[in-house]
């Protein structure tokens, strides 16, 4: 039998010294003792018992999140639509987050350049929509601008995938990159197909949210520098901001929305959550996020790899 040991797999040619993109990998170099094997086996029944509770908690997350967003929409004090502002801020956070993660690098890699170009194009596009809503310009940039952003990000993650899809990379990291590739593809579709624009944008932002949240948990696990964690957290906030705007555009801020009814929660419980004060939902989300981050930092490699 062999053990799983935590380590850092840096993109040696693609992303040198960029800690925000470091991926946890599986090192198969050391053997385990019979004692550790028995301990791992003993955890299996405990995990099976905890699965229903975990399913309930995970089902609460989208409902609580949408409740908080609905409260923000109801109390939004500006004439500018919230979705317009959320998209612009979200794209800017993605750019600022990655730019911060690249601080100290002597030279940007091709992946860094493609990523910054992609989210930079998104920022400019949503900035034009923002300016048009304020009547500062006559009209925003054409929608196919988003296709350019998606193509740039697709190139970025395609290069990254060449480096991380090998035997050393954890399954969790591979899943995160696969989600980012899917999100980039959906951005291309969003710019080209007007009839699928809203749905494709929502899927893209959901994929990026999953990928960025997963990478944040991996960074917690390897205990990287605080600046790198802050940079990745900015990207998480940016992708969630984009997801919120897209969910609002599709009318998902209701108890009957797809995220609220897709879990294991009773529909009556979902309705009660929406009727409750949003402070409860916000507190739950804060506790859930904190617990997930610190749990990832202390989770054994076998549970994440």
TrEMBL record:
Q: Where are the transmembrane segments?
A: 44-66, 78-102, 114-134, 140-160, 172-192, 198-220, 232-253, 273-294
The organism's place on the tree of life at top rank: Eukaryota
KW Cell cycle (keyword) present: no
Coiled-coil blocks: none
* UniProt keyword list: Membrane, Transmembrane, Transmembrane helix
The entry's protein name is Uncharacterized protein
Q: From which organism does this entry originate?
A: Chrysophaeum taylorii
């Amino acid at each position: 039998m062999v053990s799983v040991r935590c380590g850092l797999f840096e993109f040696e040619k693609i992303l040198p010294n960029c800690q925000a993109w470091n991926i946890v990998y599986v090192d198969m170099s050391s053997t385990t003792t019979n004692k550790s094997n028995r301990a791992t086996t003993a955890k299996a029944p405990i995990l099976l018992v905890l699965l229903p509770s975990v399913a309930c908690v995970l089902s609460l997350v989208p409902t609580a999140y949408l409740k908080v967003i609905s409260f923000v929409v109801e109390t939004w004090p500006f004439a500018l639509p919230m979705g317009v502002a959320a998209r612009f801020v979200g794209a800017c956070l993605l750019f600022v987050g990655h730019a911060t993660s690249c601080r100290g690098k002597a030279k940007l890699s091709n992946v860094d350049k493609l990523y910054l170009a992609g989210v930079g194009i998104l920022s400019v596009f949503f900035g034009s929509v923002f300016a048009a809503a304020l009547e500062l310009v006559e009209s925003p940039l054409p929608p196919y601008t988003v296709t350019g952003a998606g193509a740039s990000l697709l190139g970025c993650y395609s290069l990254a995938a060449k480096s991380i899809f090998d035997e050393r990379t954890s399954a969790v990291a591979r899943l995160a990159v696969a989600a980012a590739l899917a999100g980039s593809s959906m951005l291309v579709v969003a710019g080209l197909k007007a009839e699928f624009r809203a749905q494709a944008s929502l899927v893209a932002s959901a994929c990026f949210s999953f990928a960025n949240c997963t990478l944040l948990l991996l960074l917690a696990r390897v205990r990287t520098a605080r600046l790198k964690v802050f940079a990745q957290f900015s990207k998480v906030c940016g992708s969630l901001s984009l997801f919120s705007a897209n969910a609002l555009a599709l009318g998902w801020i209701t108890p009957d929305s797809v995220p609220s009814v897709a879990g294991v929660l009773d529909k009556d419980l979902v309705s009660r959550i929406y009727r409750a004060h949003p402070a409860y939902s916000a507190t739950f989300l804060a506790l859930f996020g904190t617990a997930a981050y610190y749990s990832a930092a202390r989770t054994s490699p076998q549970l994440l790899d």
